[in-house]
Design a protein that fits this description.
heterodimer, A: 448 residues, alpha/beta, Rossmann fold, 2 domains, five-stranded parallel sheet, B: 340 residues, ABC transporter involved in vitamin B12 uptake, BtuC, two-stranded antiparallel sheet, two-stranded antiparallel ribbon
């Protein structure tokens, strides 16, 4: 039989809690119990993973989902903990998020903005997701970010590389860990100038949507600043599959570099076509012709096979990084699934931990509390070195990897080699930089 | 000059694919009167026959090599294809290298069977239904086939490279002093397509079987009254059309890596090709295929897109509208087809 007792410690705890509660601004203390969309009830919390499960990016989506499942395991205290052990913020304890067991629902973005919005909406309204994350396209990320802002939930974007996501379309409830077109340009251009010389004429083929436009603008600006000229920029439809009629004019254009602002299937096909037309062996005015793919992904490198060898590009993260955090993640992911994670998997895993950590530090699931915790947050130990979540635009600032297609891969995963780790200072820019101007974060929206 | 010849070649190789698919579509429409929206899927399945063969040839056994390490630091498992251990490393490697041409032999029986099963199992039941029903059922079938392929092979493209000997660039303009470098495999593709097209025409023109089929296309009832089982022959023609689409797909693999929705990319355009060429006209389908391929290639050049932005994406439909306005039956269409 137990009898109710009053201990000195218990009294102190209760008193302290009551004091903190009274001292907090009223909106916050009220909101931490209710007053925001999908406040977790009971002892579980639901996260919404919105990834492409069908459509051209389905393989990336599958890898993102694997990463999310791994992150949920680690948050709930299962598995080896992965990067939770190396994360500089040691608030997470493996007991879910603030003691609530993490559960998840998934949606299929199909890499279509309307489908992605519909699946996010359903996860928010029907399944009670308190946070939405994922995706493999900037068009989708911007659409879902807008929806989450209106609905009053946090959006932790997956793979999205357009400047606009944290530029003119930035939203207070949205956060991006992945790097962007500007950073690719800033990291890549000096390496290109060093490897290929400063007197180069570039021909751009660009996917005709938000990501392609902003990346092309970024790469052209960064390379022109170092002396290159841009001969031509041709926009190609996203649905294009055969690029031969776009490649053929390159041959006689006088250009000696081809920049492919393509991703996914577009990148695989345009690169394959360019190699077929002998561009890699071509000489222009005594200079070796070169091909550049500014945004590289290992999953796509696999699709392009032999053609990626020797080609320079940039990437957010690569599994061969030797820091403790990356190795912990690769070990954990590799042991569970039998192959190393992609950059998409990495960013999604990290975003989940960052969200959970922000909730734990804020002591609330309220989106406004989470926004406050993430803004200006400095952290380390998640695979990219010291990183800042900048308050002005909710963009992460960290080192960028310049990579090259490996000439002699030792395995089917060993496709890219890291040429340079570009330090964070070199890829930083002012929040009102012209390429990012025109947007407004607005106010965080806690919803209901 | 160089640029013009290059774009003509580009047009010819894209046109070859259009022509081959449109030829099959027209064969099916002309014989069975069915509008087959699953034809693009047959093209895609052909390409995946080549992917499958290459996977089969690359089936490997693993040996553990303790001197090398994998990405987790465990001893590396080295894969050796069975083909290489059976025939010796050199012969084995050559067989794997030539897997795309070999896939032609592999694909023909498979495509014939798929075509036969499709016709007997599903499409047969829709002969007497309106064209709208046929379009819906075949379109649905195309989606099902596409999803099956995606389930087994994933959504990303899978490379099926051409043999090393055929994967370089040919310099065609050397003798004329022009700079025309063109991928050898694309030239092979154009040649292969022409061969297949002439083969199909010769088969219809010079064999008894072909004669009966042509008679059946002209007047099905009379041929049946003569005691000929025309349905069985038409079923075979369906299989043949499937095989043509499949072979077009096999050979297209090295040009663009096969993925599960490549069929849909070609399907709509091929229908436009058929309409421009004239419903039911085999030479019309081939002619329109090459013609539209070349037009599309020229519309994608920089001067065309800067003169009229977006022309590259609408040119084919624009031509279709003009042809239908001036020649409602298409370039070589005959009176009485689909007009009852």
């Amino acid at each position: 039989m137990t009898k109710p007792t009053l201990s000195r410690r218990g009294v102190l705890k209760t008193g302290a809690a009551a004091g903190v509660g009274l001292a907090l601004p009223t909106y916050l203390s009220a909101a931490s119990h209710s007053g925001f969309t999908n406040a977790p009830q009971g002892d579980t919390v639901t996260l919404g993973f919105n990834v492409p499960q069908s459509g051209p990016y389905a393989d990336e989506g599958a890898d993102e989902l694997r990463a999310y499942q791994l992150a949920v395991e680690h948050l709930n205290g299962e598995g080896d903990g992965g990067m939770m052990n190396t994360f500089s913020s040691q608030v997470l304890e493996g007991n879910g998020i603030m003691g609530k067991k993490v559960e998840y629902v998934t949606g299929d973005t199909q890499t279509k903005s309307d489908a992605a919005r519909a699946s996010a909406k359903s996860m928010i309204e029907k399944d009670g997701a308190v946070m939405i994350t994922g995706g493999s396209s900037s068009g989708v990320a911007i659409a879902v970010q807008g929806l989450c802002q209106e609905a009053g939930v946090i959006f932790m974007s997956g793979l999205t590389h357009s400047n606009d996501t944290t530029g003119k379309d930035k939203k207070a409830n949205g956060f991006r860990h992945f790097f962007n077109g500007y950073m690719s340009g800033a990291a890549l251009a000096p390496v290109l100038a060093a490897q290929y010389g400063e007197d180069r004429k570039a021909y751009h083929l660009t996917a005709d949507y938000t990501w392609g436009w902003t990346q092309q603008e970024s790469i052209a600006a960064a390379t022109e600043a170092l002396g290159w000229t841009t001969v031509e920029n041709v926009l190609t439809p996203l649905a294009a599959t055969d690029f031969s009629s776009y490649i053929a004019p390159v041959l006689n254009s006088g250009a000696d570099v081809l920049v492919l602002n393509h991703y996914g299937g577009n990148m695989v096909n345009s690169l394959t076509n360019a190699v077929q037309f002998g561009l890699r062996e071509k000489m222009v005015d005594g200079k070796q012709f070169e091909i550049v793919v500014p945004l590289f992904s290992r999953l796509m490198a696999r699709g392009a096979g032999e053609n990626v060898k020797g080609i320079l590009g940039s990437t957010n993260w690569h599994w061969s990084l030797q820091d403790e955090a990356s190795q912990a993640f690769v070990k954990s992911f590799g042991t569970k699934y039998g192959f190393p994670p992609s950059q998409a998997a990495h960013t999604c895993y990290v975003q989940t931990l960052l969200y959970a950590d922000a909730v734990a530090r804020a002591g609330s699931f309220n989106p406004c509390a989470v926004v406050e915790a993430l803004e200006g947050f400095e952290f380390d130990g998640l695979g990219n070195g010291p990183t800042l979540y900048r308050a002005e635009d909710h963009q992460c600032f960290k080192d960028v990897l310049v990579v090259r297609g490996k000439e002699n891969p030792t395995s089917e995963f060993d496709l890219l080699e890291v040429v340079e780790v570009t330090p964070r200072a070199q890829v930083e820019y002012a929040p009102d930089h012209p390429m990012f101007a025109g947007g407004n974060l607005g106010q965080c929206n806690p919803g209901a | 000059m160089d640029a013009i010849i290059l774009q003509i070649l580009n047009g010819l190789d894209k046109g070859s694919a259009y022509a081959l698919i449109a030829l099959g579509l027209t064969l099916i429409f002309g014989t069975l009167g069915v509008v087959n929206f699953a034809h693009g899927a047959l093209f895609m399945i052909g390409a995946f026959c080549s992917v499958t063969l290459s996977k089969l040839l690359n089936l490997s056994f693993e040996t553990v090599d303790p001197t090398q390490k994998d990405f987790l630091g465990n001893p590396l498992k080295v894969k050796t294809p069975y083909v290489e251990s059976w025939f010796g490393p050199e012969v084995g490697a050559t067989i794997i290298d030539w897997s795309v041409p070999l896939a032609i032999l592999f694909a023909i029986p498979i495509m014939l069977v798929i075509g036969y099963v499709m016709e007997r199992g599903l499409i047969k039941h829709f002969y007497k239904r309106p064209h709208a029903d046929q379009i819906l059922v075949t379109f649905g079938l195309a989606i099902v086939l596409q999803e099956i392929v995606k389930f087994y092979f994933g959504a990303n493209p899978i490379q099926t490279p051409a043999p090393d000997a055929l994967s370089g660039v040919a310099n065609l303009g050397g003798a004329l002093g022009l700079q025309i470098a063109y991928p050898i495999w694309r030239l092979v593709y154009i040649g292969f397509s022409l061969l297949l097209i002439f083969g199909a025409f010769a088969f219809l023109q010079f064999t008894t079987f072909g004669m009966v089929v042509r008679a059946g296309m002209a007047d099905r009832e009379t041929v049946q009254l003569l005691g000929i089982d025309i349905d069985r022959r038409f079923t075979i023609m369906f299989g043949l059309a499937a095989a043509i689409a499949g072979l077009a797909g096999v050979m297209y693999g090295p040009i663009n890596a096969p993925n599960y929705h490549m069929g849909m990319d070609f399907l709509v355009l091929s229908f436009v090709v058929v309409v421009v060429g004239g419903m039911g006209s085999l030479p019309g389908a081939v002619l329109a295929g090459f013609l539209l391929g070349i037009l599309e290639a020229f519309a994608s050049t920089t001067w065309a897109t800067t003169t009229i932005p977006g022309i590259n994406q609408i040119i084919i439909y624009l031509v279709a509208i003009i042809v239908l306005l001036t020649r409602p039956r298409g370039l070589m269409g005959k009176k009485g087809v689909m007009e009852d």
